[in-house]
Design goal:
Oligomer: single chain
Strand order of the largest sheet: 2-4-5-7-6
Structural class: alpha+beta
Order of helices and strands: HHHHHHEHEEHEEHEE
CATH class of the largest domain: Alpha Beta
Largest sheet: 5 strands, mixed
CATH topology of the largest domain: Heat Shock Protein 90
CATH superfamily of the largest domain: Histidine kinase-like ATPase, C-terminal domain
Number of domains: 2
CATH architecture of the largest domain: 2-Layer Sandwich
Distance between the termini: 50 Å
Helix content: 55-70%
Strand content: 5-15%
Number of helices: 9
Radius of gyration: 32 Å
Number of strands: 7
């Protein structure tokens, strides 16, 4: 039976029932008809007033306010609902029970006192619930970051990736030993960064960019002149915080699903700029965006959206689109941290 009743109405019923039982017990034998009529009238007026102002407070989105404004909302709702409760009670007693109500100030103070625990419990519950949801979001973010790290490691340890990288390095051993040693260092940096990724929610843009440069340097050995890379990085953004492995994921997506599918190769453009109070990261690459595919094309993109949402809510955005017939644009906007 109670499974179909919302927590709100269950609390309303149990709360006012408790109020009825307490007042019945406290009446000490003075349970006249008038007494119970007044008691039921108070309960009906209380349910009506609290429900009306509960609907109002929900429309205000009060939980997004700072604490001082939340306390102000609490005070207004408390006074307003208490006043409405007394007005309803006054009219019902005056016109239904035909029993004159005279002490208006005393009646108001009584109803304010009655509704004090109601609003106290209501606000305390939602504050605790908000804290619990924030904690759950934090845990979800940590789980998402961990999942992304594991997915990235899996992709980098994929035999095809290792084979391509080592094959490129082997070709350089005789003709360009110095470049071969550099390539080994770049490969080592990528694997080390993936397997020893920090547990923090964000890393500096500079650190993220260094991983991307190592990755693209290795890919340049394989694609040679087919891969052309341009960086447009505002130095003021290097110290800004970004989700770890996000840029590397988007660049890898551009290579795997853009450049590698073009016979003549293509161009990758990476920019990082300040746009007012936001940090804009943009990756453009030759190719066409065709949405999710069975080979995992959608994982990194969806993970990027999810992590941005968890970290910044609606203050961040991610968009990937076909900018032209042969150019894909991925753009991230984040608040400056």
């Amino acid at each position: 039976m109670f499974k179909h009743i919302s927590k709100y109405w269950l609390c309303q019923i149990l709360g006012w029932l408790a109020y009825f039982l307490i007042n019945t017990y406290a009446s000490q034998g003075k349970n006249t008809d008038i007494y119970f009529q007044r008691l039921f009238t108070i309960m009906l007026a209380g349910i009506l007033a609290t429900h009306v102002f509960r609907l109002l407070v929900r429309r205000l989105d009060w939980q997004s306010y700072p604490l001082e404004k939340q306390l102000l909302v609490f005070f207004v709702m408390w006074i307003g609902s208490g006043t409405l409760m007394y007005a309803v009670y006054y009219l019902m007693v005056l016109y239904v029970l035909t029993d004159e109500v005279t002490d208006i100030l005393g009646g108001l103070m009584t109803f304010y006192l009655i509704l004090t625990p109601w609003w106290g419990i209501y606000f305390l519950y939602h504050i605790v619930e908000k804290s619990r949801m924030a904690k759950m979001d934090q845990l979800t973010l940590q789980a998402t970051v961990k999942e992304l790290e594991l997915k990235t490691i899996k992709a980098q340890l994929n035999p095809h990736f290792i084979f391509n990288a080592l094959n490129s390095i082997r070709a350089l051993v005789d003709e360009n030993p110095q470049r071969a040693r550099t390539a080994i260092t770049e490969l080592s940096n990528i694997l080390r960064s993936s397997m020893a990724a920090e547990k923090s929610e964000t890393v500096s843009m500079e650190k993220e960019l260094n991983i991307v440069k190592d990755y693209l340097a290795l890919e340049t050995i394989r694609f040679e002149e087919r891969l052309r890379v341009t960086y447009d990085i505002d130095p003021d953004t290097l110290g800004l915080q970004v989700p770890p492995m996000m840029l590397q994921t988007l660049v890898e997506n551009a290579i795997k699903h853009g450049i590698s599918k073009e016979i003549s190769g293509g161009h990758v453009y990476i920019s990082s700029k300040l746009k007012g109070l936001q940090h804009e990261i943009m990756i453009e690459n030759t190719g066409q965006f065709v949405g999710k595919t069975k080979n995992g094309h959608g994982f990194g993109l969806e993970s990027t959206r999810q992590r941005l949402s968890l970290l910044f809510g609606n203050r961040a955005s991610f968009e990937i689109r076909n900018k032209s017939a042969d150019l894909v644009e991925a753009k991230v906007l984040m608040p400056i941290l």
